[in-house]
């Protein structure tokens, strides 16, 4: 039996045997060649192709493969099977741009490995030129793993496709080469029908690219700050948003290119607010700059009651390289190439997880966000978070704090607006951090945005009813970062975005260009699939039944309902006392970490803060805090395990629950609708919730869906359990207990 | 909300002064630590007390002693002063100096050890440590009573915590609560085998063990192949450890592949053989026309199985048993499991080390043992379902690992066992009637806490079931609270269900006559235990995934004493709310419809097209 490029460095893997014999291959090779081509997207261009290529099917228990043609286009690497496509199983959750089974957007490629003479090598630029490997393994950023065998095709073709793929996926390239720039040049077909509706939907996401958006946001949170429009043409700073909001007390804007300028994030109902700023490290001799920063801090203090706490995030949190390293380790546990690897790594699963440190970074970020929340909610102090750039961890912490404090950001539209406000308009360097252009400079790559989504997932997991969106939404969003269509994740700053978009615009005849934003979900999913974005458990704010239920408590009462003894040092807010106190603070601004550190460790005080919150009655539309104890911080199963067939639960998983809940909910809504129809007076009342409708019942056959639904392909494979291979390591119990007899005393001592 | 309601009532109580009476010195305690236990228990408790000021005593529960000025050293909130009351069934602690009110209420059965820690200090304080079977330790400090003749409350506690060691009877024998249903009638072996559709032409119910003469740890009713005579069974019983011969546990309704359980064969070093035993296994194989093979699953690691030969035991040799394939499942013995549980307790109670949580968890091997047990059961279920092959399962004695494996495999194979009543039948059958030694493994009322026979075998099984309920949230009729209740009542000794070591002992002690069954209690308030998401799929086999990536530590059981790990509101509360909301809306729709119907009847005008359509599908659920 021919062992097809038996996988990787460890050459003798028992489970890695192909069941395709050479004879079979011959037989399969022959069938009449019908040229097959992928359905290209508008603007997509085919670069090269090769046939026959054997693609190993990972989701099958037996490791065999499918023959077909491998293509490389300017958008993706795609594989088209020679086999006549099986009748299309109606997929409820299909991405319109690419299929999860055979398509890899170029931007989504993480690493390519080549297997040369049984040895697995990481492909980098240098290796490409010499020879092509017998097998090519592609690791994707969304954690899919593809394995292609190149030995059956003509040498020339194999070389071409391998070099093509390696070139387009690994070589440094310019932003212009990103598919979005080819894609957007073409008019999007067929969207006109749903255009109006989608526009309506889209409009609810606030883009924060106009002064009105900011004014509106300030109004919503009752902020008393100043809108800055002086940076409209980026004269002030190219690293700052086009429009932003600062404390009223700041007079001079144009010094130090906006460095140290506190950018308003959010205002608490008490009046205190959260600000973020880029504080470069200050050297001793830079006295003037030091003074400038102090003025800035004082300006923040003026915002409310002359109090401010500052926190230098680069001091207290891991830096972006730490984050990158940790994630690199972490993701390896999910890039599984075969069953043997899976069961081997299963044994040391927990300690491997711990050694990556990824969950610990998540915990630290959430912890920091809770500290910020505590300052705002309990102490009613202004908070200024800083770091060198002010656009990485500042974004993570400020967004998390806002999600915990403000229920609006837990709705889908609110969340998208938050990402726009803090990340997109807020100038997070997506292009560099996500390394879309394969730059060699490793320093600036870091999955900061993913880290944020991870933290949000923890919150969603712990307090599901408080969120309108589902974990599927977060997973899809994390994938969309690597789909090179959307303007959202393509730029390093607002200035960058505008520069590129303007420069590009002459290409299109019809006015300024508009790449779709990722929030236009209809580009990727039809509305039916978009239903999966909504959390069926979401407890919507009671609006109609005000008459029946008690009117909603005004927010400040919530504060009073805190048990007064819960905090060890109750803050007595005598006005004068505070005034003098805060004057002192003005002179001697305390750093948040040190401030918290003095009596107890920050962990201990936030712990207390958490506990007192926990004793309050549940309020999904109030403050939300995460539990940070060891067992509470978990792995985002859906995102990380969805492509690993060994862990599919057939007929189970959270999907079983979700479908059941969706059924239940649609029934409730049916009944509501019936009632509304019945209500003679309210003849023309429109249901404002377009989602979760009858049609959801159509996938009610949850009995056979696997836990990876809606992501992994629904296979027609036999319903068989996955049994650990014989290689499952024996538990090493070394002490004498193992050899003891079960019965220590054979006499039953029952009385 | 019930939760906050009960807390409020306690708070109001505490502001009023406690009425002093010798019998009860406390007021009603809302046990904040036990809040998660929910309302069901409270309901039982409520039967006795009439006014709020009294202790919620059960029928026949008597206060034995009480002490004021006892300090409970709570690992989570620090020292708490209060009063301690000991009855013949439980321990109450209620704090007096703290808000929110704090209390403890635990059955004495849950205690595995009570001991004085250190000597009395100069101030005359004595400290007591209470180790519990449910993953917690309690510490109390109190003043040595001035009157040295008077026994301290802890000496009283020790007496009632270990009634068996003190020649008293367990509280279950005193408890006389009457429930609408008699749980002792839940399991009828004949009815159960009939439900399984036992084919008469190949299997028969033998009366050979009617008086427990063949095997005293087996049930009276045994199912064996028709071709094997009772005489042959007697001969086989001398070849199988403790006389536990291979008998049928479950049969597949379609393929007739059987799950058979046994104990190890007494092969010994000389390779003893027993031709009746060989014939029996052949008969089991022949009873299933679909396969020409039989699988023998030995739950032990092969090394241990081989080591057993030294002591006369061993495993079936493939020479002697034609067509049989032997598979070892590598599950460790009771001592390893006990040690693993001890480590787990160290890691989760009282405090969790956040930064090393995962590696600490791994070092307990607890989930790895769970994985091995589930993997074993999965292989058994797979052979029966996919391979249509009959299987024989055994370990050494066939009463620890064997019931773990068979009952889990049965849950995977037969949806009936995933219902509340079906699960009760499963426990009664695989665990109780087939003689899992509950008395020994749990040590009911026995002060000998170092007894090497104790082991969390049943706990592991329930943990495995919980893992499956997590993976298949809609496949089980019962909820998590049902499983926790079973475990709590396993230790409490309030019900007779888990007493003694075998069916024979229970009959001898007349347990069903003198005690209440746990199922009487459970089945009288089923609504507490129902999983709102349950969907009944009749012939739906569950194959859980056993990768450790999908196994979780059962936080809501093992770490439930840690207040920080408690959810603000359990999610299933939301499901219940949704169901209630639907019911409410449904009612309103029906009312309106009736109204409309009346109106159309009277005025016979307007309003056509009544939306009955959307109501019909709704009724099929709940």
TrEMBL record, chain A:
Keywords: Cytoplasm, Sarcoplasmic reticulum
GO BP, sorted A to Z: phosphatidylinositol dephosphorylation
Cytoplasm among keywords: yes
Main location: cytoplasm
Domain Myotubularin phosphatase: 208-567
Cellular localisation: Cytoplasm, Myofibril, Sarcomere; Sarcoplasmic reticulum
Any one Gene Ontology cellular component term annotated for this protein: sarcoplasmic reticulum
SUPFAM superfamilies for this protein: (Phosphotyrosine protein) phosphatases II, PH domain-like
Entries under InterPro entries matching the protein: MTMR12-like_C (IPR022587), Myotubularin (IPR030564), Myotubularin-like_Pase_dom (IPR010569), PH-like_dom_sf (IPR011993), Prot-tyrosine_phosphatase-like (IPR029021)
Family as reported in the entry's similarity comment: Belongs to the protein-tyrosine phosphatase family. Non-receptor class myotubularin subfamily.
Protein name according to UniProt: Myotubularin-related protein 12
Gene: LOC107552602
Automatic annotation (TrEMBL), chain B:
Functional description taken from the UniProt entry: Regulates the level of these phosphoinositides critical for various biological processes including autophagy initiation and autophagosome maturation.
Bias (Polar residues) ranges: 1-14, 599-622
Similarity comment: family membership: Belongs to the protein-tyrosine phosphatase family. Non-receptor class myotubularin subfamily.
Enzyme class: hydrolase
Protein name: Phosphatidylinositol-3,5-bisphosphate 3-phosphatase MTMR2
Stored PANTHER family: MYOTUBULARIN-RELATED, MYOTUBULARIN-RELATED PROTEIN 2
Principal location class: cytoplasm
Residue ranges of every copy of the Tyrosine specific protein phosphatases domain listed in the record: 364-411
InterPro entries reported for this sequence: GRAM, Myotubularin, Myotubularin-like_Pase_dom, PH-like_dom_sf, Prot-tyrosine_phosphatase-like, Tyr_Pase_AS, Tyr_Pase_cat, Tyr_Pase_dom
Annotated compartments: Cytoplasm; Early endosome membrane
A cellular component term, taken from the record's GO annotations: early endosome membrane
Compositionally biased region (Basic and acidic residues): 20-34
Key words, A-Z: Coiled coil, Cytoplasm, Endosome, Hydrolase, Lipid metabolism, Membrane
Molecular function in Gene Ontology: phosphatidylinositol-3,5-bisphosphate 3-phosphatase activity; phosphatidylinositol-3-phosphate phosphatase activity
Sites where the protein binds substrate: 308-311, 333-334, 395-401
Disordered as annotated region, ranges: 1-34, 592-622
Residues the record marks as active site: 395
Pfam family, any one: GRAM
């Amino acid at each position: 039996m021919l062992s097809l490029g038996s996988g990787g460095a460890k050459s003798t893997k028992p489970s890695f045997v192909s069941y395709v014999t050479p004879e079979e291959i011959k037989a399969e090779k022959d069938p009449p060649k019908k040229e097959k081509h992928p359905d290209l997207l508008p603007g997509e261009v085919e670069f090269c192709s090769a046939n026959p290529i054997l693609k190993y099917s990972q989701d099958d228990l037996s490791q065999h493969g499918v023959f077909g043609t491998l293509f490389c286009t300017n958008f993706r690497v795609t594989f088209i099977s020679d086999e006549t496509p099986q009748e299309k199983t109606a997929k409820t959750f299909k991405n319109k741009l690419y299929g999860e089974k055979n398509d890899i957007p170029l931007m989504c490629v993480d690493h390519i490995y080549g297997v040369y003479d049984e040895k697995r090598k990481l492909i980098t630029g240098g290796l490409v030129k010499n020879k092509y490997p017998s097998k090519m393994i592609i690791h994707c950023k969304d954690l899919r793993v593809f394995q292609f065998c190149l030995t059956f095709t003509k040498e020339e073709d194999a070389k071409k496709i391998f070099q093509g793929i390696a070139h387009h996926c690994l070589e440094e390239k310019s932003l212009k080469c990103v598919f979005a720039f080819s894609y957007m040049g073409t008019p999007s077909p067929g969207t006109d029908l749903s255009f109006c509706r989608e526009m309506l939907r889209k409009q609810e996401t606030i883009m924060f690219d106009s002064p009105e958006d900011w004014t509106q946001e300030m109004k919503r949170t009752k902020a008393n700050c100043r809108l800055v429009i002086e940076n409209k043409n980026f004269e002030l700073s190219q690293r700052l948003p086009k429009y932003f909001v600062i404390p009223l007390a700041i007079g001079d804007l144009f010094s130090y290119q906006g460095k140290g300028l506190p950018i308003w994030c959010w205002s608490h109902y008490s009046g205190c607010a959260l600000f973020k700023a880029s504080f470069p490290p200050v050297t001793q001799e830079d006295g003037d700059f030091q003074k400038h920063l102090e003025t800035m801090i004082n300006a923040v203090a003026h915002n409310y009651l002359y109090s401010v706490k500052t926190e230098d995030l680069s001091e207290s949190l891991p830096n972006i390289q730490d984050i990158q390293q940790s994630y690199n380790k972490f993701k390896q546990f999910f890039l599984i190439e075969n069953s043997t690897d899976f069961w081997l790594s299963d044994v040391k699963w927990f300690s491997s997880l711990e050694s990556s440190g990824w969950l610990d970074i998540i915990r630290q970020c959430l912890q920091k966000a809770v500290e910020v929340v505590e300052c705002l909610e309990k102490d009613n102090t202004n908070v200024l978070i800083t770091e060198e750039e002010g656009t990485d961890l500042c974004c993570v912490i400020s967004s998390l704090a806002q999600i915990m404090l403000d229920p609006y950001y837990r709705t889908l539209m609110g969340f998208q607006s938050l990402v726009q406000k803090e990340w997109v308009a807020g100038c997070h360097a997506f292009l560099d951090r996500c390394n879309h252009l394969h730059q060699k400079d490793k320093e600036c790559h870091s999955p900061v945005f993913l880290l944020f989504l991870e933290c949000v997932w923890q919150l969603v997991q712990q307090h599901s009813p408080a969120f309108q969106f589902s974990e599927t939404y977060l997973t899809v969003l994390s994938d969309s970062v690597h789909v090179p269509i959307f303007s959202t994740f393509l730029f390093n700053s607002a200035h960058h975005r505008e520069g590129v978009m303007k420069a590009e615009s002459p290409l299109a005849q019809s006015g300024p260009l508009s790449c779709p934003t990722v929030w236009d979900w209809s580009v990727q999913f039809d509305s039916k699939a978009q239903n999966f974005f909504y959390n069926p458990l979401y407890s919507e704010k009671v609006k109609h039944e005000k008459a029946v239920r008690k009117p909603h408590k005004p927010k400040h009462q919530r504060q009073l309902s805190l048990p007064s003894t819960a905090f060890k040092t109750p803050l007595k807010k005598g006005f004068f006392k505070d005034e003098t106190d805060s004057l002192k603070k003005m002179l001697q601004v305390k750093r948040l970490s040190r401030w918290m550190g003095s009596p107890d460790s920050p962990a201990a005080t936030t712990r207390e803060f958490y506990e007192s919150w926990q004793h309050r009655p549940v309020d999904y539309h109030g403050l939300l805090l995460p539990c940070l104890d060891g067992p509470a911080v978990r792995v985002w199963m859906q995102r990380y395990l969805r492509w690993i067939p060994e862990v599919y639960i057939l007929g189970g998983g959270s999907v079983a629950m979700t479908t059941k809940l969706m059924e239940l909910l649609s029934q409730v809504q049916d009944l509501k609708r019936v009632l509304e129809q019945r209500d003679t007076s309210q003849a023309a009342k429109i249901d404002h919730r377009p989602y979760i409708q009858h049609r959801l019942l159509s996938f009610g056959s949850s009995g056979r869906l696997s836990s990876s639904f809606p992501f992994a392909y629904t296979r027609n494979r036999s319903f068989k359990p996955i049994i650990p291979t014989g290689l499952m390591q024996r538990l090493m119990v070394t002490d004498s207990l193992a050899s003891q007899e079960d019965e220590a005393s054979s006499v039953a001592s029952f009385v | 909300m019930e939760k906050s309601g009960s807390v409020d009532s306690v708070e109001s109580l505490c502001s009023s002064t406690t009425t002093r009476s010798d019998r009860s010195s406390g007021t009603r305690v809302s046990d904040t630590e036990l809040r998660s236990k929910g309302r069901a228990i409270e309901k039982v408790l409520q039967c006795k007390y009439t006014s709020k000021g009294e202790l919620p005593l059960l029928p026949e529960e008597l206060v034995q002693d009480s002490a004021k000025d006892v300090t409970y050293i709570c690992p989570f909130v620090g020292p708490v002063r209060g009063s301690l009351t000991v009855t013949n069934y439980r321990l109450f602690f209620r704090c007096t100096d703290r808000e929110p009110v704090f209390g403890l209420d635990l059955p004495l059965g849950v205690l595995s050890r009570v001991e004085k820690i250190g000597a009395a200090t100069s101030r005359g304080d004595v400290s007591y440590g209470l180790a519990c079977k449910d993953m917690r330790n309690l510490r109390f400090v109190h003043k040595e009573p001035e009157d040295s003749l008077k026994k301290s409350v802890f000496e009283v506690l020790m007496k009632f915590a270990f009634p068996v060691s003190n020649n008293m009877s367990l509280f279950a024998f005193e408890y006389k609560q009457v429930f609408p249903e008699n749980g002792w009638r839940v399991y009828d072996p004949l009815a159960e085998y009939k439900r399984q559709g036992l084919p008469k032409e190949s299997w028969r119910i033998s009366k050979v063990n009617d008086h427990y003469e063949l095997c005293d740890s087996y049930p009276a009713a045994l199912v064996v192949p028709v071709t094997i005579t009772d005489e042959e069974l007697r001969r086989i019983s001398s070849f199988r450890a403790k006389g536990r011969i291979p008998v049928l546990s479950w049969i597949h309704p379609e393929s007739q592949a059987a799950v058979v359980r046994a104990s190890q064969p007494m092969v010994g070093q000389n390779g003893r053989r027993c031709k009746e035993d060989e014939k029996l296994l052949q008969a089991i194989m022949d009873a299933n026309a679909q396969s020409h093979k039989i699988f023998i699953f030995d739950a032990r690691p092969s090394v241990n199985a081989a080591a057993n030969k030294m002591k006369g035991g061993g495993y079936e040799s493939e020479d002697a048993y034609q067509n049989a394939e032997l598979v070892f499942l590598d599950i460790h013995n009771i001592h390893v499991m006990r040690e693993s549980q001890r480590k787990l307790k160290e890691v989760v109670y009282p405090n969790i080390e956040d930064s090393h949580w995962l590696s600490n968890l791994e070092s307990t091997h607890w989930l790895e043992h769970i994985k091995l047990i589930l993997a074993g059961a999965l292989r058994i279920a797979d052979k029966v379902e996919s391979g249509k092959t009959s299987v024989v399962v055994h370990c050494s004695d066939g009463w620890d690992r064997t019931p773990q494996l068979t009952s889990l495999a049965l849950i995977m194979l037969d949806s009936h066992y995933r219902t509340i009543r079906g699960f009760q039948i499963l426990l009664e059958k695989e665990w109780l009637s087939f003689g899992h030694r509950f008395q020994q493994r749990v040590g009911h009322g026995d002060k000998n806490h170092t007894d090497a026979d104790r082991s969390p075998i049943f706990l592991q099984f329930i943990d495995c079931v919980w893992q499956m309920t997590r993976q298949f949230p809609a496949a089980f009729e019962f909820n998590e609270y049902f499983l926790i209740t079973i475990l709590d009542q396993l230790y409490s000794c309030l019900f007779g269900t888990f007493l003694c070591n075998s069916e024979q002992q229970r009959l001898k002690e007349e347990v069903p006559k003198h005690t209440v069954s746990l199922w009487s209690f459970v089945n009288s308030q089923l609504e507490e235990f129902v999983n709102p998401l349950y969907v009944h799929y009749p012939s739906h086999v569950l194959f859980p995934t056993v990768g450790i990536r999908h196994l979780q530590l059962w936080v809501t059981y093992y770490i439930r004493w840690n207040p920080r790990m408690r959810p603000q509101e359990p999610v299933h509360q939301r499901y219940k709310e949704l169901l209630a909301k639907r019911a409410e809306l449904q009612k309103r729709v029906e009312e309106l419809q009736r109204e409309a119907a009346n109106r159309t009847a009277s005025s016979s005008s307007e309003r056509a097209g009544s939306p009955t359509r959307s109501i019909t599908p709704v009724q099929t659920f709940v």
